[in-house]
Amino acid sequence: MGLAARIQATKAMLRIAITGPESSGKTTLCVALAEHYQVPYIPEYARIYLENTQGQYQCSDLDIIAQGQLKSLLSFKGQIAVCDTDFSVLEIWSKYKYNRVSEDIKKLVAKDYFDLHLLCTPDMPWEPDPLRENRKSRAELFELYKTNLNKYNKNFIVVSGPHEYRLKKSLQAIDCLIKV
Fold first, then answer.
1. Mean pLDDT over all residues of the chain?
2. pLDDT tens per residue, range 44-75
3. What is the rounded radius of gyration, in angstroms, for the C-alpha atoms of the chain?
4. Whole-angstrom distance, CA of residue 40 vs CA of residue 8
5. Nearest to 117 by CA among 168, 153, 161
């Protein structure tokens, strides 16, 4: 049975979210998963938004980013959605930077949009990027992500180590969800 038939047999769409602190290999893993399953991936809307604002934003912009990410996710028309973020990113970002979280973001985090979250550890070298802000707090943020995923009882695995190992572990977890 092919991938499409196996997913169809289990549900209409399989949704996978890659999450974790900045510069933890999320996009690299996203691209590799999309290539493996021969599907496009859903980019991180925050990056698109912040590139258009030259990295300038305020707390209210996080709600706009959340709605943009939701629109991207809900408009995706494939059998497997690989998403380069989840809504917990926005909750943690908002708490960490502004010490508050909007009700809209709380509702998005509480809802179960994804079948599996892949939590990337920040055990790789930092890659500078003008949109990144938290080089020195990646380990602390990782723990916040793990706590958040547990708090909301999300289905997740932690992926760490070299890219090849992360990809292999991710593929095994996803393939377990695909199997009927």
1. 87
2. 998 889 888 877 888 999 999 999 999 999 99
3. 16
4. 18
5. 153
Q: Which helix (H) or strand (E) holds 70?
A: helix 59-75
Measured CA to CA, the distance from residue 158 to residue 125 in angstroms comes to 18
- The model's pTM: 0.86
Residue 31 tokens read as 């691209």
The type of residue at 143 is E
Q: Which residue has the tokens 């943020």?
A: 141
End-to-end CA distance of the chain: 10
Q: How high is the pLDDT of residue 179?
A: 79
> How do 116-120 and 80-83 pair as beta strands?
unpaired
Q: How far apart are CA 154 and CA 117, in angstroms?
A: 7
Q: With contact defined as beta carbons under 8 Å apart, do 57 and 50 qualify?
A: yes
Contact in structure between 163 and 35 (CB atoms under 8 Å):
no
